[in-house]
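Hey L., structure's done. Input below.
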Amino acid sequence: MIKISNLTKKFDEFTAVDNVSIEVNNSSVYGLVGYNGAGKTTMLKLIAGVYTPDSGTIEIDGTDLLFHPEKKQELFYVPDDLYFGLSASMKSMAKFYSSYYPSFCMDTFYKLSDLFGLNVNKKIAGFSKGMQRQAEIVLGLSTMPKILLLDESFDGLDPAKRNLTKKLLLDYMAEKECSIIISSHNLHELADMCDHIALMNGQKIAINCAVDDMNGSRCKFRLVYTENVDRNIFKGIDYKNYKSDGKIVSFTVSKNIAEAEKIIGFTGPVLAEKFPLSLEEIFLEEMEDTDYDFEKLFS
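Output:
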């Protein structure tokens, strides 16, 4: 299990990660989402040991990584910006990684390379972006990690390779009981893969819960009345994104949904519909800071 407590990282005056605490269980795929600059990549680099935190701790199975760097041999990080030497081939990289990771499995390496259709003797620099990402995922899985960190690792993959990669990751997680943390802007992919999601906003964790709980924790109401209604009749409901077209009203609710339904019932709508919010809708609602008046942008 990964336990991160009160983690903070600053670059001069800029705080990239601000007092973040999360836990990632074994046999879990943990999704990390947020806008650009929210701190997702910094978080992964802190866990991987690329950066040293200014404060806070990172523990793997109760062992602090800062004081036991050998535990990093149980961890593999696939960054968003891949780098391979100009003359490096997958075979030479496998030899390099096997010298650091005691559990590196050459048999797995060759099987996965064949599965992705990658020539292990060719220079990786000549691969496409998607093939380079596949190559690093193959190398990462071949280290047989207990923890796998993936930063935008589906970027550049075609649909077939994306589905193959997702299946491999889920199968590996289930068989080896490893922890996977994956950062992605594609919320649909995370919803399909992850059992847990954290949303980073302002370098902090804004939402941190199981995907099933998240899907049921917020909903959208669409209400129809025989006459125009004033929003004051919904006093007592903690709503967001209120919209009204006279007789038709819609808004979202994330707290005390049962109580909101009771209040709505008292307002006498002729039609009341309730829809669960998708992961993307929850993300956009949480990240939305303000409503822009676009007309003023060009005046």
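Residues 159-176 form the longest helix (18 residues). The chain has a mean pLDDT of 89.

-- N.
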